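Lab notebook page, bench 4
Experiment: in silico fold of construct C2
Operator: M.H.
Input chain length: 429 residues
Purpose: comparison with the prior construct
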Amino acid sequence: MILKRNEFFVLLISLFYWTCALIPLDAFAHKLVQEKIQYHANLWDRLQNSFSLALPPDSKIIHRIGVSYSQNPELFNRIIANSERYLHYIVEEVERRGMPMEIALIPFIESSYDPLIKSNSQTSGLWQFQPKTGQILGLVQNVWHDDRRDIVASTQAALDYLQYLHQKFDNWKLAIAAYNLGEGTVSKALSRNIHKGRSGNFYDLNLPVDAKQYVYKLLAIKDIIVNSGKYGLQIRPIANRPYFDQVKIHEPIDTSLVTRLANISEVEFNALNPAYNRYVIKVHDKPRTLLLPKSNKEIFLKNLETYQDSRVSWQTYHVKKGENINEIAARHSTSVKQLKTINGIARNKNITLGQKILVPHTLTETQSDNIARKKEQLQNYQSNVYVVKKGDTLYEIAKRYGTTVDQIKSWNDSDESLSIGQKLVIVKG
């Protein structure tokens, strides 16, 4: 069959349309995004390409705020340096959700991209959540960890909250103002304008000065990034690639062991995992997430797989009636100073009845003998490490390796219960 040129063109367009229609929209959008960003070696170029919030009609205030930043270039550049670990992840999430890219700059104002920043209020983390707001958004806060400081959890919570506010106000600038001020205050100001027949535009609302300044600051930072030369600032480039990877932890582990197995510094660990309050990462009903530099993830997993000793050197202890910290320290072969440091107890403070503190993990003489004997046995044999998968049983694993359930229990000090991701030592004679 011979088609005329116009008919052939129409057919091509139709085929393209139906091909696109058959591709899941999310996958198609993701492909377009990837094609769009692959040309940006510098992350700042990627941000500039996705900014969407307009500057106010009178941009003098934006310029004035921008100049105030340019007058302290050391501070500005320090904040930019702080952002290097986190910004790519935030940009990816903002882009994935189809939000204005200016949102990725909110931590610039809130925390200077420092998740461990100390503030006079009770706010915490990159996104500076109050304790109550954090609880409402599902950010767990306990003696072991504060998820307001967790990079991934807090970012997801912040973006969820901002999307909720945008859905409520149908305006991104109002949503950003409400993030800073509270949705109640913005709602009242909006209701007053509507009642009086006035505009609901952000610039026309009678909002507190601080709330308007917050939005203006965000727009000023965006203007600096777009027009850095105008402000006499040089913005150091950030590579447009992930800085960290996520690793799921299924069993408690000392933070010091993580740094050793991942071959990273304590400073790097704390910068990527600021949520953890203690020297032990406690795992409760679900796995915890570790962030590691992208180049160190495989090093950590490989070293963890072959690590045979205990992963925890600290245990929880409940203070009993009549006990003091000197007695507890002596009983666990440590010093009062170390106990107070580990538990964040001030020098002039005392422990109280029922208080939970961390003490060195001590073994009974029998346990020590058993561990020594098993180590000696393992040294005489080759061993495999088997990672438990969904549906596995001890019986099936024993059968696969030509051994017995009791022998596997003996090698691993394990009972019948298994968990996905658990590592079992299988000794080969």
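Observations: The chain has four domains: 37-231, 244-306, 314-360, 365-428. The longest strand covers residues 244-249.
Next step: discuss at group meeting.
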